[in-house]
C-alpha cells in the first residue's frame, strides 16, 4: 500500500486541510459500515469517539504566536530560517511512518504571508530532502478585489517558487469558488424543481461533524477538499483502473515548468449535497469540460490541451470512459504531438450519497490569462514601489527578488504563448468512414 503526506501551511491551508480530513474520515466511515473487519470497525470508532484534532499527532504540528503580516518575505525568509530544522525533522518523521511514500500534498494560499512564503519554503525543503518523491501543490489564488493589498506581491513571489520546485500545481481561484458556491445556493433555493439542501449532510456540511460548528469559508473550502478527496480516491479505495499519483506528474507534464493543471469537478451539486436527480453519465463527462465546473476561471476549449486526466468514481465501466473520450476528443484542441495524451483512473467507491463523480485535470494553456492578470496587478504596485519597504526590511530579502520573480512569471507566460501560437495549426480529427458489415 502506498502513502502520501499532507502538509498544510497557513490559515487557508489548515482550514482546507481540516475540511479534507473531516470529509475523508466520514467517507471511510460510510464505506466501513459494510465491513466486518476488526481494523475497519475500530477505525470508525476512533473517528467518532474523538474530536478531529485527536486524530493527529500533536508532535507533528508547528505553531507560532503570530502570522507573517501578509508579507511573503517574513514567511519565506524569517519563519523559513527560524523553523527550518524543526520543519525538516517533522517531515522526516512523517516520511518514516510510510512503507511506500508516494507523494507530498502541499496546501496553502498565495495571497497571505505564511501560506505563500512559508508554504513555498517548505516546498523547496521537500525537494532538498526528498528529491525522488513527487510534490503536488494545491494553491489558492486571491481574487482581484482581495482585501490584502500586498497579495499581488506575495502571489508573484510564490509563483517563482512553484514554477521551480513543484512537480504539479493545482491552482484554485477564490473567485471561482465564490461563483460555484453562489450557483449552488441558487440551485438550493429552487431554481431547479425539487432541489433542496439535505439536513445533516454527511459529505458537505460539517454540522454535527468532527470539526465543530460551521465556519464562514467552509462552503468554499469544501470544494477544494472534494478536489483532494477525488484525487486521492484511488490510493484510498479499490478500483478496476487505479491511478498512481506519481503518474499525474509523469503523464501530465510534458514540459517541466508547465505543470499548472486546471481542475474541474462534476456533478457540482454534490458539493452542497443538493437533492437533485443524478445527471446522465454522458452529461457528467460533458460538464467536466465546461468552464462552469472549473476551480479556475478559464476557457479550455478555446485554448490548447497538452494532456488530460479523468478520475472517475463509482459504478462506471471502462467502456463508458473510453466511449466518452472518443465522443469528446474531436472537440478538444490537443497539441499535434500528444493527441493520445489521456490518463484515466476508475475508483469503485463513489462519494457519499452519489452513484458516481468525475475529476478532470487538464494541462491547458488557458491558465495564461490568470497569470497575465496577476502580473498586471503586481506591476501596478511595483511601478510605484508601493509597500516595498515592508519586504526590504526583512533580513535576506532584496529588491532583486521582485525583479527575478517577475522575470520568471514573464518567461512562464511566454512559454504558454509560444504553445498557443501553434493552435492555429490544430486540425480536428477527420470524420471516420463507417464500414458496412
Automatic annotation (TrEMBL):
<keyword id="KW-0547">Nucleotide-binding</keyword>
<feature type="domain" description="Tubulin/FtsZ 2-layer sandwich">
    <location>
        <begin position="241"/>
        <end position="376"/>
    </location>
</feature>
<dbReference type="GO" id="GO:0007017">
    <property type="term" value="P:microtubule-based process"/>
</dbReference>
<keyword id="KW-0963">Cytoplasm</keyword>
<comment type="similarity">
    <text>Belongs to the tubulin family.</text>
</comment>
<dbReference type="InterPro" id="IPR008280">
    <property type="entry name" value="Tub_FtsZ_C"/>
</dbReference>
<protein>
    <submittedName>
        <fullName>Tubulin epsilon 1</fullName>
    </submittedName>
</protein>
<dbReference type="GO" id="GO:0005874">
    <property type="term" value="C:microtubule"/>
</dbReference>
<feature type="domain" description="Tubulin/FtsZ GTPase">
    <location>
        <begin position="35"/>
        <end position="239"/>
    </location>
</feature>
<keyword id="KW-0342">GTP-binding</keyword>
<dbReference type="GO" id="GO:0005525">
    <property type="term" value="F:GTP binding"/>
</dbReference>
<dbReference type="InterPro" id="IPR023123">
    <property type="entry name" value="Tubulin_C"/>
</dbReference>
<dbReference type="InterPro" id="IPR003008">
    <property type="entry name" value="Tubulin_FtsZ_GTPase"/>
</dbReference>
<dbReference type="Pfam" id="PF03953">
    <property type="entry name" value="Tubulin_C"/>
</dbReference>
<dbReference type="InterPro" id="IPR017975">
    <property type="entry name" value="Tubulin_CS"/>
</dbReference>
<dbReference type="InterPro" id="IPR036525">
    <property type="entry name" value="Tubulin/FtsZ_GTPase_sf"/>
</dbReference>
<dbReference type="InterPro" id="IPR004057">
    <property type="entry name" value="Epsilon_tubulin"/>
</dbReference>
<dbReference type="InterPro" id="IPR018316">
    <property type="entry name" value="Tubulin/FtsZ_2-layer-sand-dom"/>
</dbReference>
<dbReference type="Pfam" id="PF00091">
    <property type="entry name" value="Tubulin"/>
</dbReference>
<dbReference type="InterPro" id="IPR000217">
    <property type="entry name" value="Tubulin"/>
</dbReference>
<keyword id="KW-0206">Cytoskeleton</keyword>
<keyword id="KW-0493">Microtubule</keyword>
